[in-house]
Task: inverse folding
């Protein structure tokens, strides 16, 4: 009897990590591919309640005096009418500020123009970030878009942010460098995977693809450590969206895009978007926050997939809140602050120069609107060809740099093709002089030059 009880307790303990039946399954791919989504109706009910968008206040007229004329210290929203400006302030208060503090969470009540409260300075940058997401990351957020509520849900600090792990104490662990493994972290769904799946992929751009592309292990260069890193990120993506792997992959071949779902492409853009938000907006805010907001390693709070999605396949189950706040759509031109780190795109009627982050071949920041301009002028000028050359800075490994310069040029070519420019009009050219500078990391060297001919 005693033994049976022990056995039952042991079984219960083992099953505690599993979900209690019944669960429902929804077919997500072709018949026979096993691409089913497993849902737990109880989780869904809680999720639905957590993901309801607040109702929008009625719109106000855009005419009348502008906010820039009425108020003293308006740097981003100056083009709104004073009425629209105030409506947005009320909405922001509801989305972000603790109710007991209201406007005073960001404002000095004696002088609303004063910038001494850090939350106001952060909020101004957050407005720019929200506009940037809605205007420049449509391949991910589509027309649904985001508002402050998407991440904040009525709280000053979003429920899902991440920090780098505290640096390990030297010599305290006889197992050596465990690379964050077996540390039972929520970030990787408590698997024994490295517990920081974010820094390499959502801050840096370490390669995610680890599958071999040939049957025999020839030329397969990915290490087991890199593979574990990829799986850690994938665990986070599944958990962050409340889906299993087959939402994006046909699991008989994770790498194959032809057998993947369209959602995987959206996710691909999502990874690039999160990287951009972290590097261009959230990390540079580090010195603006009070120390208590920083992580154990002294780093700023950062975003991952769960920051917006919070366990739903689309944030707020696709509620299109942003359409009620066109001022957050970035229709107003956002001046990129110097903290973006990249020199601004140089455009002229005969070409453009787009700049890239260190080690990156991603079109981000100012390069995204730069591309749009380039596409527009190519469309307006049907005879023109775009001649593309990629460059890199002088620091780092020459072979890797050459590859990077090539990938930068390819990124521009692919973006032009994706925007409907005929391949025949795009010419890739090896730059005559590759050395951009003689020493170190010159931002002006990390570029792609496009000449219209
Ligand atoms: C989450 C932070 C936040 C909250 C909460 C907030 N504001 Fe603001 N407020 C800002 C930011 C940021 C600006 C500057 C916007 C810009 O530069 O374009 C601003 C500017 C203003 C200004 C212009 C002041 C001037 O003369 O330059 C007024 C007026 C204002 N807010 C009113 C309010 C009122 C009223 C409330 C409460 C209903 C409120 N705000 C709540 C962040 C906030
Ligand atoms: C993509 C997600 C995201 C969106 C959208 C977003 N924020 Fe944030 N916000 C964050 C993150 C992450 C932090 C850092 C959290 C912290 O301070 O610990 C933050 C912090 C803040 C803070 C400082 C909080 C504090 O007390 O430290 C303010 C104020 C703020 N956001 C206002 C806004 C406003 C206003 C908007 C809309 C215009 C907005 N945010 C949109 C992710 C977002
Ligand atoms: C929301 C969509 C999504 C989900 C869910 C998802 N993945 Fe991925 N996966 C991707 C994308 C996108 C890439 C490619 C990333 C890139 O190239 O930047 C990828 C890449 C991979 C790769 C590398 C493929 C290669 O070419 O080498 C593996 C392996 C992988 N995923 C496994 C998984 C596993 C296991 C799960 C479930 C735990 C999972 N994925 C869940 C979107 C997803
Ligand atoms: C700034 C907020 C935000 C962040 C951060 C974010 N997403 Fe999204 N995501 C959205 C919005 C908004 C949509 C809805 C777009 C639409 O309606 O088509 C979406 C849609 C998706 C979809 C399509 C779902 C479907 O069924 O069509 C996938 C897949 C996805 N996101 C994956 C990711 C992954 C993976 C990450 C992290 C690498 C991520 N997202 C980070 C806002 C975000």
Result:
């Amino acid at each position: 009897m005693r033994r049976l009880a022990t056995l039952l307790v042991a079984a219960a303990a083992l099953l505690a990590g599993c979900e209690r039946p019944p669960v429902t399954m929804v077919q997500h791919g072709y018949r026979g591919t096993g691409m089913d989504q497993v849902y737990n109706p109880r989780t869904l009910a809680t999720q639905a309640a957590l993901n309801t968008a607040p109702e929008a206040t009625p719109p106000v007229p855009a005419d009348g005096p502008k906010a820039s004329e009425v108020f003293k210290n308006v740097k981003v929203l100056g083009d709104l009418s004073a009425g629209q400006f105030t409506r947005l302030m009320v909405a922001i208060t509801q989305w972000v500020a603790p109710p007991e503090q209201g406007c005073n969470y960001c404002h000095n009540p004696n002088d609303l123009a004063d910038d001494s409260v850090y939350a106001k300075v952060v909020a101004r940058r957050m407005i720019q970030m929200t506009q940037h997401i809605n205007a420049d990351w449509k391949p991910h957020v589509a027309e649904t878009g985001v508002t402050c509520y998407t991440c904040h849900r009525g709280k000053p600090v979003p429920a899902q942010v991440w920090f780098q792990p505290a640096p390990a104490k030297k010599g305290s662990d006889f197992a050596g460098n465990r690379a964050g493994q077996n540390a039972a972290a929520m970030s990787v769904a408590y698997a024994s995977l490295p517990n920081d799946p974010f820094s390499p992929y959502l801050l840096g751009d370490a390669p995610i693809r680890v599958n071999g592309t040939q049957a025999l292990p020839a030329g397969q260069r990915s290490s087991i450590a890199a593979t574990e890193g990829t799986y850690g990120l994938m665990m986070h993506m599944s958990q962050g969206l409340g889906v299993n792997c087959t939402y994006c992959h046909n699991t008989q071949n994770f790498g194959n895009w032809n057998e993947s779902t369209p959602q995987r492409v959206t996710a691909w853009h999502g990874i690039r978007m999160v990287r951009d938000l972290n590097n261009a907006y959230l990390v540079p805010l580090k010195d603006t926050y009070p120390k208590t907001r920083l992580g154990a390693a002294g780093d700023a709070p950062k975003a991952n997939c769960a920051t917006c999605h919070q366990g739903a396949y689309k944030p707020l189950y696709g509620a299109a809140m942003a359409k009620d706040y066109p001022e957050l759509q970035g229709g107003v031109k956002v001046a990129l602050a110097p903290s973006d780190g990249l020199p601004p795109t140089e455009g002229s009627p005969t070409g453009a120069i787009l700049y890239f982050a260190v080690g990156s071949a991603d079109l981000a920041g100012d390069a995204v609107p730069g591309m749009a301009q380039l596409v527009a002028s190519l469309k307006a000028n049907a005879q023109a060809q775009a001649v593309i050359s990629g460059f890199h800075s002088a620091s780092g490994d020459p072979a890797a740099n050459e590859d990077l310069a090539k990938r930068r040029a390819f990124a521009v070519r692919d973006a032009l093709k994706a925007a409907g420019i005929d391949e025949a009009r795009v010419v890739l050219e090896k730059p005559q002089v590759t050395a951009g500078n003689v020493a170190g990391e010159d931002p002006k060297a990390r570029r792609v030059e496009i000449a219209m001919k």
